[in-house]
Amino acid sequence: MDTLLDALERYINEERIPGFLPPGYRVAGMRLSQHWENFRATLTDEQIKNLDAIQSEESNFRHMEEAAAFRAALSVSIELSRL
Fold it and tell me: CB pairs under 8 A, 24+ apart, for 67-71?
């Protein structure tokens, strides 16, 4: 069942979510990336290494939240389809 849920989550992330994002999303993402790039340019190698570790941990944490939200939404949609 996890394999099916993982495949559905990938499909939603790649094919469906982009259609629901607001028009300014892409520009905001590029702007945010530029801010991070500018900030990283001010850091030492050690600070960059620490920042990368923190960002990786945060990314994993956010992915767990998103996966739980997806599974909760899927569960609600299944329950609603039975009404």
Answer: 67/9, 70/5, 70/8, 70/9, 70/12, 71/5
How many whole angstroms separate alpha carbon 81 and alpha carbon 83?
A: 6
What are the pLDDT digits (tens) for 67-81?
999 999 999 999 999
Around Cβ 3, how many Cβ atoms within 10 Å?
Answer: 7
The pLDDT value given to residue 72: 93
| Residue reference for tokens 């991070």 | 36
pLDDT at 1: 66
DSSP 12: I
3-state secondary structure 41-78: CCCCHHHHHHHHHHHHHHHHHHHHHHHHHHHHHHHHHH
Place of tokens 């570790």: 53
